[in-house]
Design brief:
- The protein has 417 residues and is mainly β.
- It contains eight helices and 20 strands.
- It has helices at 33-36, 137-142, 291-294, 314-326, 383-386, 391-394, 396-400, 412-416; strands at residues 41-42, 56-64, 71-78, 84-91, 96-102, 125-131, 148-150, 157-165, 178-183, 189-191, 217-219, 221-222, 234-242, 247-253, 272-279, 285-290, 302-308, 331-336, 351-359, 406-411.
- β15 (272-279) and β16 (285-290) form a beta hairpin.
- The longest helix has 13 residues, at 314-326.
């Protein structure tokens, strides 16, 4: 949920809606955990803005500082079956990220392990607390958990989001975390306030045509860190172009190597990568390819070809791509339908934004998109022109070599030749 215009997981075990305190008999009546959270924000539903990954699901719970005065909020749940999960805390008045925990950072409950640190096929549980800015260290210590997210002073309205990527089913094969409150003075459990409507869906979209949209070269740039409900564990390279019916948009790159076991997560170059293709008119994503689908051998190039559904030679393009893949070339064909209707009922058009997403990118790796010594962000709004200030550090191919995507538009006739 990054603001990239300023560039945009059933249940295996049903958790008891517990009070998150030591006395198991003290159970609070109230809504089920699933009812406490907002509806699932499906990455593949075409409803989310800011170019979401199609293989991600989100949930948010929103409240005010006033409603939890003197209280800590307790989120008690089961680790999901997913490639990645996190909790992010936001100032719901402006979308600013103000705290959070990525999956590997969460300390499991006693008797459980963190399945994002060590392979496990059992049920594993966690407890996370969100505490107010004026909570004392003694009060925090009495909660008995090391998973603490502290609210900064001055924030009046808050939203916490759980994210899952490539989860097992809608909720990652588990129930949503139960939300309760704890009185910081007495350590007694209370019911959590009912969820408020969040501002997360009020994403600003302001499409403006750019001259660079029509250039044949399609470079990729590092996106600035988003200021509107960003996924703090993710970095992005982006490109944007207008594609004519009789042209093709092609690009290639060597993908970041992926860990094969949970035990490799800690030192991985990145946890996850995907390419998402969205419309600049509404910032919704309409097509995605993730690392599993691409299935590119480590160190080899991946090729993408984007063609319009309205291309009169589309069948010939499909045949060529199929022949290339039969020879082991790792080519992904994206067929974009410019007349496809968005959830708002408008055609998605032919201005395509491509997002190369890396989750938990390791900035110490030489070719990482998070390596600030190699590549620096390029402000959105005519990035081609802005990158002229430092092209060796702002154009992905020049900064990262073949690990940085680089695109070009060609006529269909030239591609088929």
């Amino acid at each position: 949920m990054k603001n990239l215009t300023a560039l945009a997981i059933t249940a295996m075990a049903c958790l008891t809606f517990c009070a998150c305190e030591k006395e198991e008999s003290n159970v609070i009546d109230g809504p089920t955990p699933k009812e406490q959270w907002g509806k699932t924000l499906l990455g593949n539903a075409g409803t989310l803005a800011a170019y979401p990954d199609l293989y991600s699901n989100y949930w948010e719970y929103t409240w005010t500082k006033e409603s939890t005065a003197g209280l800590a909020l307790c989120f008690k749940g089961e680790f999901p079956q997913a490639r990645f999960m996190s909790f992010s805390l936001y100032n719901d008045n402006n979308g600013e990220a103000i705290g959070g925990l990525a999956d590997m950072e969460i300390i499991p409950d006693a008797g459980s392990v963190n399945p994002f640190v060590v392979t496990s096929d059992k049920h594993n549980y966690f407890t996370v607390y969100v505490v107010p800015s004026d909570a004392t260290e003694a009060q925090i210590s009495a909660l008995g958990s090391k998973n603490i997210i502290r609210v900064p002073a001055g924030v009046e309205r808050l939203a916490i989001a759980e994210r899952q990527y490539m989860g097992a089913g809608e909720y990652g094969g588990v129930e949503m975390p139960a939300i309760t409150a704890v009185d910081l003075t007495t350590q007694k459990a209370q019911a959590a306030p009912l969820r408020l409507d969040s501002n997360v869906s009020n994403f600003p979209v302001n499409y403006q045509e750019q001259k660079a949209d029509f250039l044949p070269d399609v470079p990729f740039f590092l996106a600035v860190k988003g200021a509107y409900y960003p996924n703090m564990s993710t970095d992005y390279l982006f490109s944007r172009t207008v594609l004519a019916d009789d042209s093709l948009y092609t690009f290639d790159f060597i993908p970041v190597p992926m860990p094969k076991t949970v035990e490799e997560y800690k030192d991985a170059k990145a946890r996850y990568w995907s390419m998402c293709f969205g419309s600049a008119l509404d910032t919704h994503s309409y097509y995605s390819i993730n690392y599993e689908q691409a299935n590119v051998p480590e160190g080899e190039k991946c090729y993408f070809v984007v063609a319009m559904q309205q291309n009169s030679q589309l069948e010939a393009v499909k045949q060529k791509v199929s022949a290339q893949n039969a020879q082991g070339k790792n080519t992904q064909l994206i067929v974009w339908d410019r007349t496809r209707k968005s959830v708002e009922g408008k055609e998605i058009g032919n201005c395509i934004v491509t997002m190369y997403r890396n989750i938990l990118a390791n900035g110490n790796w030489e070719y990482s998109i998070a390596n600030s010594n190699k590549i620096i962000p390029t402000p959105y709004g005519n990035p081609v022109e802005r990158a002229k200030a430092d092209p060796d550090h702002m154009i992905a191919r020049r900064a990262l070599g073949e690990y940085g995507p680089q695109g070009i538009k060609v006529s269909t006739a030239d591609y088929l030749r």
